[in-house]
């Protein structure tokens, strides 16, 4: 039995066996941790200190060689100010290609800026961005 694994961070689609799927999820979650940590300007050591582990363990989480426990993922989500579900968003088993947003420098700046906005103002910014995306140019 095999499945198709889509990695939205790299934009790659890979056919993998069920035994490899757990590892693929670990790599995906690790990449999400790394990108979000970077966007928030937090070092591996700072994150490790805040969740009570060594920075080498954060390195292992980020490359997917060690699986993040549910309790550690919860702590990481609190430090990085996102819901736990964030680490699994866009994780799909489908054969769909799409542009890798993290390769676009301006998109990276936009994402980094979003995470610098105070939590209570993010919803308004998100709604504004959605409204802009839905607008049709005047002909």
From TrEMBL:
GO MF assignments: DNA binding
Pfam family, one: HTH_3
Protein keywords: DNA-binding
Signal peptide segment: none
SUPFAM superfamilies assigned: lambda repressor-like DNA-binding domains
Domain HTH cro/C1-type, chain residue ranges per copy: 33-87
Source domain of life: Bacteria
Gene3D superfamilies: lambda repressor-like DNA-binding domains (1.10.260.40)
Name under which the protein is recorded: Anaerobic benzoate catabolism transcriptional regulator
Organism lineage: Bacteria, Pseudomonadati, Pseudomonadota, Alphaproteobacteria, Rhodobacterales
């Amino acid at each position: 039995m095999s499945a198709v694994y889509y990695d939205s961070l790299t934009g790659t689609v890979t056919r993998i066996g069920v035994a490899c799927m757990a590892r693929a999820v670990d790599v995906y979650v690790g990449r999400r941790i790394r990108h979000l940590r970077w966007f928030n300007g937090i070092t591996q050591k700072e994150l490790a200190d805040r969740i009570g582990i060594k920075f080498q363990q954060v390195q292992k989480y980020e490359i997917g060689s060690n699986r993040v426990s549910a309790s550690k993922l919860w702590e990481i989500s609190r430090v990085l100010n996102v819901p736990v579900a964030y680490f699994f968003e866009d994780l799909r088993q489908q054969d769909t290609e799409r542009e890798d947003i993290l390769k676009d420098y301006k998109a990276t700046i936009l994402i980094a800026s979003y995470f610098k906005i105070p939590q209570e103002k993010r919803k308004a910014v998100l709604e504004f961005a959605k409204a802009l995306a839905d607008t049709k140019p005047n002909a």
